[in-house]
Amino acid sequence: MAAPYDVIVIGAGPGGYNFAIRAAQLGLKAVVVEKRKTQTLGGTCLNVGCIPSKALLHASELFDEANHGFGKMGIEVKGAEVNLPDMLAFKDRAVDGLTKGIEFLFKKNKIDHVFGAGRIEAPGKVEVELTGGGTETFEAKNIVIATGSDVISLPGIEIDEERIVSSTGALALAQVPGHMIVVGGGVIGLELGSVWRRLGAQVTVVEFLDRITPEMDGEVSKQFQRILKKQGMEFKLNSKVAAIDSSGKTLKVAVEPAEGGDGEELEADVALVSIGRKPYTEGLGLEHAGVATDDRGRVIVNEHWQTNVPGIWAIGDVIAGPMLAHKAEDEAVACAERMVGKAGHVDHNIIPNVIYTYPEVAAVGKTEEQLKAEGTKFKKGKFPFAANSRAKSNDTTDGFIKVLADAATDRVLGVHMVGVNVSEMIAEVALAMEFGAAAEDIARTCHPHPTLSEALRQAAMDVDGWAMQM
Known about the structure:
By secondary structure, this protein is an alpha/beta fold. It has 3 domains: 5-150 and 278-339, FAD/NAD(P)-binding domain; 164-275, FAD/NAD(P)-binding domain (3-Layer(bba) Sandwich), CATH 3.50.50.60; 359-462, 2-Layer Sandwich (Enolase-like, domain 1). The chain has helices at residues 14-25, 43-48, 50-68, 84-108, 167-170, 187-198, 218-231, 286-289, 325-339, 368-373, 389-394, 426-434, 439-443, 454-462; strands at residues 5-10, 30-34, 112-122, 125-130, 135-145, 149-151, 164-165, 179-183, 202-206, 234-236, 239-245, 251-257, 264-268, 270-273, 277-279, 312-314, 353-355, 360-365, 378-384, 400-406, 412-419. It has a 5-stranded mixed β-barrel. A 5-stranded parallel sheet has the order 7-14-8-9-10. Strand 12 and strand 13 form a beta hairpin. Helix 1 (14-25) runs parallel beside helix 9, helix 3 runs antiparallel to helix 4 and helix 3 (50-68) packs parallel to helix 6. The radius of gyration is 24 Å and the shape is globular. The model has no long low-confidence stretch (mean pLDDT 97).
């Protein structure tokens, strides 16, 4: 029996490791349990998600720019080629550096960790089936479930991570596929599809609904798809993948209309299944411990991240809300503060969402569709990057920024962006919304010139009809 702790954290992803660090800062003794077979910290995000995908997005963007963009600026580059093993090694170095960074932070904050599969035996008690063999039991006043999420597979289709892949396999393909079919027009599929498209693959996206990124603002989704189509990606909307035959040298993918009817068969070298993620609760012993879950398998918590069982808490992808690393990080901090009696809080209406394609998509707050559905009267301002001086000088004019504000109070309700580097701009809006800013507050805040951020200011000006640069 291990010595008692103040808290046992199950899962070492962005939610788990940030919780442990904040808990340690607040004087709690924490032990983190992680079942990843590679025995690395950081969860899906650092190991096979956010970080490796961004490394490949960056590398493939530079390759594409060298081949198609440099010449327009008078930079002659001949014979640029992809060395895929070296590019994957570049990705792996980024992952290795950051996962080791978490190990350092654990040592710095005197946080213990153990590799193995944790199971809640009772409130305050977790048994760990150790990766190296044997079991160890930990006791603590509190348990935090931060186990994240797992990929959703298609019924009857087995993901082998070689030809039929999830995001994990798509980050480690041995060669550039001739044709990749992406099943699902959401964030993960579009990001990884764009990587392999830039490296030379033909990419076809099959989406069940009538538009890609259905959770985003409709106007954004429409222009975003036009941009990706212009870059060479193909789309089959209102369509579903009914089956994949992997018995031959190439995959035979049966694609049918979403509402039924005659379909078609597509050949592909790789199929990326990216239809969403589900909370990871397998083997946790939730039912045994009496922890309530909803009809989607998510752990039910109150506004303080407490489950129905005293002393058991949950954060991140395993509970309701957007499955985003930064949402888990925010909940981690607030949950730790609640645990020691502080007033930790997260405004779930102000969680930025980003798609890291080229150009990027970023949003925070309500969409036009949501505001109309709830009957909220609003004003809208919009500004295109084609009229922005920095975008013009950089030849990065695709996209726009849209600001939605309350019709009566002018308070910012949502902002939606398509454009280069908008992932670095959306936090300004989140900060403004946290302080209850009006669109006029952004419009009257001096922005440096020339910058892409001026497009945000102009869009805010346009809410009241006084944009000055279009």
